[in-house]
Structures are given as C-alpha cells and as structure tokens.
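pls design
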C-alpha cells in the first residue's frame, strides 16, 4: 500500500502539468504592424480576437511610424470610419461570405490609401514594407500555410483543421 501511495504522489504532478499547459492557451504572438490584428488592420492586440479599437490602432501606428500629433488627428477619423463601415457590413450581412469579404477588403484598401496619403516619405516606405509582409502572411494563410516562420499561426486566426 505504501508503494502505491508513492507512485500516486509521483504520477499526480506528472499528469497535472500537461493538463495545466493545455487548459489555458497562451496568447499568440502577433505582429505589431499592419496585419497584427484582426483582418490585418494596423496594429492589433496580442492574443485577442475581434476588432481592435481605432484608439489602439492609432496608438500602435504612432509607435510604429512615429506619427506627429497632426498626423494622428488626420488618421483617427479614417480608422473610426473604417471600423464603422466594417461593423455595418457585418451587421447587414446577407450570408454571402465571399461578397462580404470583397467589400471588407475594399473598405480596408480605401482606408490604407487615405492613411498612406498622410504619411511622409520615410513613413510611407515603412508602411509599404509592413503592408507587403501582411499580404504575404495572408496569402500563406489562404493557401494552407500557417502564418509565419516555424509554422506558428501568427495571423491570429484559428489553425487549419485536419
């Protein structure tokens, strides 16, 4: 009986550790540039899903591109407008996911064009580079890839189901 108790005391922690490790998933690392957040918007909350607030996006853009106060005041309404349009589109969805996706991509593209117009040449260069990285990551996700180096799903989406 004493031997059984010793085995039980040894096995319990060994079984508990893997359960704890899988019980609470860690926050996934996400990029802090365009594509770090939901649907590839500039910025993104690490480990969170769903839309990122315009204020949070602006904060991250300010950090990434060293925005001036004037640039921030011009970009914030663009981000607010984009979020409003996206929410309206989600709420009035007719169930055609492909059509909705196309409209969302157009809304995002329009916003990115407007934001880019506010940036100076140095900021535009960095912005364009981050946009290219986001596009590449999205293509990898759509083609069955897993979002980033080492196979980690850095896009914030659910991993592909097998």
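designed seq:
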């Amino acid at each position: 009986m004493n031997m059984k108790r010793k085995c039980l005391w040894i096995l319990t922690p060994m079984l508990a550790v893997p359960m704890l490790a899988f019980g609470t998933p860690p926050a996934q690392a996400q990029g802090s540039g365009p594509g770090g957040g939901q649907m590839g918007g500039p910025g993104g909350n690490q480990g969170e899903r769903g839309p990122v607030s315009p204020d949070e996006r602006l904060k991250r853009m300010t950090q990434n591109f060293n925005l001036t106060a004037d640039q921030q005041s011009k970009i914030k309404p663009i981000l607010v407008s984009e979020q409003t349009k996206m929410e309206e589109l989600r709420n009035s969805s007719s169930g055609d996911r492909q059509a909705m996706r196309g409209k969302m991509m157009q809304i995002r593209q329009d916003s990115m064009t407007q934001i880019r117009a506010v940036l100076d040449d140095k900021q535009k260069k960095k912005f364009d580079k981050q946009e290219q990285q986001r596009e590449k990551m999205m293509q990898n996700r759509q083609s069955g890839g897993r979002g980033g180096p080492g196979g980690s799903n850095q896009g914030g989406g659910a991993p592909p189901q097998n």
